[in-house]
Amino acid sequence: MFAVQTDIQQVDPTHFVCQIANPETVNHVVVFMTGTTPFPEGTGGAVHFGYTSSSGVDWHFIGFISNDKPSAIFKISGLKNSARPNVPSFMGDMSNASGGAASQIGISVEPLSQIVQQTPTSQAQTDVAQFTSKLLENFYNFASSFAITQSEMTPQPNVSFVPSTVLNQWYENFKRKMSQDPNFWKK
After folding, report:
1. Does the global pTM surpass 0.70?
2. Is the pLDDT of residue 12 over 80?
3. What is the 3-class SS of the chain, one letter each residue?
4. CA–CA gap between residue 64 and residue 72 (Å, rounded)
5. What is the pLDDT of residues 98-137, one digit of tens each?
């Protein structure tokens, strides 16, 4: 099921917000220009997802649209559970001017040269997840290459042995947790 929302509110000359009804049921949002008003030359719309938390509104940069790229699909499921981004807020000190909505899409008109240098939150999470998975896979393969059977073991009082089944179980558990919540290790 999907819904089209066109009730975008202009907060100031360069900031716009759209409330998201029932945000817990929304996986993706599509943001598009209607073609009636283009962005000023050299600018675009930095798209942010914001939700109300105990510390105010947490805004996540999720991508952008521009005259050359007038529409985009953004995955927002899971962002509410991710760590608060350590980046400047979408509306700075005005971030509490959200009208108390649970979730919103914010668009900030900015120079394209600045927008393209930002990394979307979901991409950063994907990069961390991929790096972590590759790191663990490399460690697992390295450690497994030293696996020996019990009959091949020689008594060495100063050396500890870990069964490769324990390493395999840990690796599978870590992969499962990582797929459920890429930030689980921060808790």
Report:
1. no
2. yes
3. CCCCCCCCEEEECCEEEEECCCHHHCCEEEEECCCCCCCCCCEEEEEEEEEEECCEEEEEEEEEEECCCCEEEEECCCHHHCCCCCCCCCCHHHHHCCCCCCEEEEEEEEEHHHHCCCCCHHHHHHHHHHHHHHHHHHHHHHHHCCCCCHHHCCCCCCCCCCCHHHHHHHHHHHHHHHHHCCCHHHC
4. 7
5. 444 578 999 999 999 999 888 776 555 566 667 777 778 8
